[in-house]
Predict the structure of Acyltransferase.
Amino acid sequence: MRELMQWVGIPEAEQAVVLASPPDEQQLAAAVAELRRDLGTLDSRAGWPPGSGTLPLYAYLTVLPGVLAWHAARGVPREVSQATMRQLGSRVRDGEIVRPYWFARHFRGSLYRLGRLQFDRTTRHGEPILDIHIPGDGPLNSEACDNSLTAARPFFAKHFPAEEYKRAVCTSWLLDPQLADYLPEDSNILRFQHRFTPETVVSQADDDVITFVFDLPPGADLPRRTRLQRAIADHLAQGKHWHHVTGWLPL
Ligand SMILES: CC(C)(COP(=O)(O)OP(=O)(O)OC[C@H]1O[C@@H](n2cnc3c(N)ncnc32)[C@H](O)[C@@H]1OP(=O)(O)O)[C@@H](O)C(=O)NCCC(=O)NCCS
């Protein structure tokens, strides 16, 4: 367990908390069986009700060697597997995963981190597409994004040759065109946004933006230290909303 926690980058102090509170063995066996059933599918049935404690983390770590073997069988380089799985290490607080459902994609073998961006294999109306996600662990600089986007098509062609990915989609608050009212044109966020052809406004994103940018619960007092923080707070204070927007790009 310790070795796996180390490998995904769970901090030492967190590891001790995790080891001190193992989940119920029967629940763990059931959760592991669900995750094993989901491996290789594009959909996850395993769910984590609030208050699942350390169960999701134990379950994910238990299946991790099997998922890595599944990656290896497809020739996925070990560095890509580790870069992908290290997001788990960054999301452990007080021994539990913050938003554990997010990792379903990592552990069913659909999501891979290639440099700055993550790509999740999925389908839309029967077309194989890559769903882009942006981990919040550093600036979103353009060159890093170029490199990730350039790597995506050859990576999936090599390791998942049965599926041909010609387009990528992204659904994010980062694609909300209202950000242009606040951020400079040369900001990383707007430069990223301009790569996509926007299609639809999907849903209101106020609570998600507060979680992603401030790591605070909805309704909390928002600090205004950066341009983005001021933008988000001012916009909401005016009674306006942020939205998740879907955009497309060719690969
Ligand atoms: C996406 C992300 C990496 C962009 O960061 P970036 O490269 O610094 O973005 P920009 O260069 O466009 O930043 C423009 C301004 O916003 C600020 N900013 C950007 N992201 C910020 C964040 N998460 N928290 C606080 N301020 C932020 C920058 O500091 C800058 O303001 P400044 O000029 O006053 O310093 C960052 O917002 C992030 O980590 N977000 C969380 C992950 C996320 O939301 N993913 C998408 C999920 S749908």
User: Anything to note?
Assistant: DSSP finds ten helices and eight strands in the chain.
